[in-house]
Design brief:
By secondary structure, this protein is of the alpha/beta class. The chain folds into two domains: about 130 residues, Response regulator (Rossmann fold, 3-Layer(aba) Sandwich); about 180 residues, Methylesterase CheB, C-terminal domain (Rossmann fold). It has eleven helices and 14 strands. The strands form three sheets. It has a seven-stranded parallel β-sheet with strand order 8-9-7-6-12-13-14, with helices on both faces. Strands 2-1-3-4-5 form a five-stranded parallel β-sheet, with helices on both faces. Helix 8 packs parallel to helix 9. The chain starts with a strand and ends in a 6-residue tail after the last helix. The C terminus is likely disordered.
């Protein structure tokens, strides 16, 4: 069987390079075409070899993975998966900044001293690399300004708003939170598909730009206005009776956008709003449709600004989306909806 996906590896650890090469080479879909010891090497090899996917470490000598990602996306764009530790704050921050610079996904290295099934770890990484290879290569996350939210006659103010995202989501969420004011009179809930181990770093990273406090939700916690809630590692995020619920995931997308939106529809009805952001797959669309059926406000990120237009497109094709907007306009819509209310969207 001919291997179709050409992969370039970058890591300063010889042991990690050997492990990555072994695990990825066992997958019949993947071919490891080169290994680099630092950011300078991976930059030069990317220009010459033109791989389909790069596995990128972030803490490397000469040129770190963040700067290497920036230069690769500027000079010879490629799909990049960041493979890094989630035990150090500095490395975690570099990892999310690399996502903002154009990398598509994060994947955690095995933690030293922690029990791990290396075979299962390698299989998950191989599957992720294969999925990333199917994603369209987005050269720009920008788009022309979209139309503003079309507000109608005042009905009821939105009391809660949720955002669901996957691939490309972290920088979009950062942009939305950066534009929202402190003291927002509603809680925001976020279902961002996240590799287990990275949620704590994601909270700190978003907190650097958000004027609204960002928290990791706790089971049974009361929702408070002016707070942003993330699902805990390996858990979903839902609401019920004015309280947060964080059931452990047993498989599939985690946290689930469908489950979050469905819980809003059941608990808040027309006083809830939601938006589906960039991401691959079909999560969140069905839940958003249920929210629309009960009169809630349902938005999606527009195609031109998405890294991957999978989740928003699926939601739109289902008839779940009332309006598609650029991220900045979604931020403006959230602020207006919770202060003014809405009864129609054109």
């Amino acid at each position: 069987m001919k291997k179709e996906i050409r992969v370039l590896l970058a890591d300063d650890s010889p042991t990690m390079r050997r492990a990555l090469t072994m695990f990825l080479s066992q997958d019949l879909r993947l071919e490891v075409i080169g290994t680099a010891r630092d950011g300078e090497e991976v930059l030069q090899m990317a220009r010459f070899l033109k791989p389909d996917v790069i596995s990128m470490d972030v803490q490397m000598p000469r040129l770190d993975g963040l700067e290497a990602t920036r230069r690769i996306m500027a000079d010879c764009p490629c799909r990049i998966v960041v493979v890094s530790s989630h035990s150090e704050d500095a490395e975690m921050n570099l990892s999310f900044n690399a996502i903002q610079a154009g990398a598509l996904e994060l994947f955690g290295k095995p933690q030293a001293g922690a029990p791990v099934d290396l075979g299962a770890w390698g299989k998950k990484l191989s599957d992720l690399v294969a999925r990333v290879a199917e994603m369209p290569l987005s050269l720009s996350g920008a788009s022309a300004p979209s139309a503003p939210l079309s507000l109608g006659k005042l009905a009821a103010p939105i009391e809660v708003f949720a955002l669901a995202a996957s691939t490309g989501g972290p920088p979009v969420l950062a942009e939305i939170l950066e534009k929202l004011p402190a003291g927002l009179p509603i809680p925001l809930l976020i279902a961002q598909h996240m590799t287990e181990g990275f949620t704590g770093g994601f909270r700190k990273w978003l907190g650097q730009v958000s004027k609204i406090p960002v928290e990791i939700a706790q089971e049974g916690q009361k929702l408070l206005p002016g707070r942003v809630y993330l699902a805990p590692d390996g858990c979903h995020l839902e609401v019920g009776g004015g309280l947060l619920k964080t059931p452990r995931s047993t498989g599939g997308f985690c946290p689930s956008g469908d489950r979050l939106f469905l819980s809003l529809a059941q608990t808040y009805g027309l006083k809830a709003g939601g938006a589906v952001l960039t991401g691959m797959g079909e999560d969140a669309g069905r839940g958003l449709l249920e929210l629309r059926k009960v009169g809630g406000v349902t938005l999606a990120q527009d195609e031109a600004s998405c890294v991957v237009y999978g989740m928003p497109k699926f939601a739109r094709d289902l008839g779940a989306v009332q309006q598609s907007l650029v991220p900045a306009a979604i931020a403006g819509a959230i602020e207006r909806l919770c202060r003014l209310g809405v009864d129609s969207l054109k």
